[in-house]
Amino acid sequence: MTRRRIGSTARGLSRGAGRANDDVLDPDDHTVLRVVIADDSRLIVAGIRRALEGEEIEVVGEATTGAEVLSLVGRTDPDVVLLDFKTDGFATLEQLRVRYPRVKVVMLSVFADPEHIQMALSRGASGYIVKTINPRDLP
After folding, report:
1. Rounded distance, CA 42 to CA 52, Å?
2. pTM of the prediction?
3. What is the b/e burial string over 101-121, where b = at least 16 CB atoms within 10 angstroms of the residue's CB?
4. Are 23 and 5 in contact, with CB atoms under 8 Å apart?
5. Which residues contact 119 (CB under 8 A, 6 or more apart)?
6. pLDDT per residue over 2-13, tens digit each?
7. What Rg value do the Cα atoms of the chain yield, rounded?
8. What span, in angstroms and rounded, lies between the C-alpha atoms of 69 and 74?
């Protein structure tokens, strides 16, 4: 399997979105998007894994703490980390941005208010997903 290039916007995370260039996902590129899921709830992790896995997305790891996320990213070299606020959210986000600037970090949260979203994006998140999203809208 080959790696997919990931864009810097949340739109670049969905298949077929954006332009076909080096900065976004190319819908005609048949490579795999490598994802790490980080959430303190195993049930949430299992649900996200089930919603995401398929031909174009490979979940390469799961973590429940910020320390696990950092170690896992170093070992698995994912394209994207889905990071819940409760897994030491902002501290982990900031460390990921410094240690692994190529990896896109999408925050997961129950908070849908603009303040939380803006805070995550201003600290370096590439996107933000509210946990009330329909699983069919994830990939």
Report:
1. 15
2. 0.77
3. eebbbbbbbeeeeeebbebbe
4. yes
5. 90
6. 444 444 333 334
7. 14
8. 9
Residues shown for the chain: 139
Which single residue is written with the structure tokens 């260039």?
Answer: 21
Straight-line distance from the first to the last Cα atom of the chain, in angstroms, rounded to the nearest whole number: 18
Is-contact 5 32, C-beta < 8 A?
no
Side-chain half-sphere CA neighbours of 1 within 13 A: 12
B/e letters for 9-22, b = 16+ CB within 10 Å, e = fewer, are ebebbeeeebeeee
Q: Are strands 80-84 and 104-109 parallel, antiparallel or unpaired?
A: parallel
Q: What is the distance between the alpha carbons of residues 68 and 136, in angstroms, rounded to a whole number?
A: 28
Q: Residues near 1 by Cβ (< 8 Å), separated by ≥ 6?
A: 31, 32, 58
Q: Report the distance separating Cα 130 and Cα 111, nearest Å.
A: 7
Each residue of 41-61: pLDDT tens digit?
A: 999 999 899 988 887 999 999
Both structure tokens of 62: 């799961």
